[in-house]
Amino acid sequence: MSLIITDECINCDVCEPVCPNEAISQGVEIYEINPDLCTECVGHYDKPQCQQVCPIDCIPLNPDHRETQEALMEKYIRITQG
To answer: Residue 67: which CATH number?
Structure first.
């Protein structure tokens, strides 16, 4: 699965710079995660970095974008190989 940022987001700006895939960007009201770029940091780190730095824990798994670990790794390879 990719991750999603919920309405509890306070726009603290800490998640965007730690995303290795540049999947996080400022939306209209809160930050948003592009599910086509989010790999839950698979291929980069053991844990999603945005979840690690979020001070209010508003970045859960996105139930609308279910993916296996293998699919996340394939996405990582596709993204990093350009």
So the answer is: 3.30.70.20
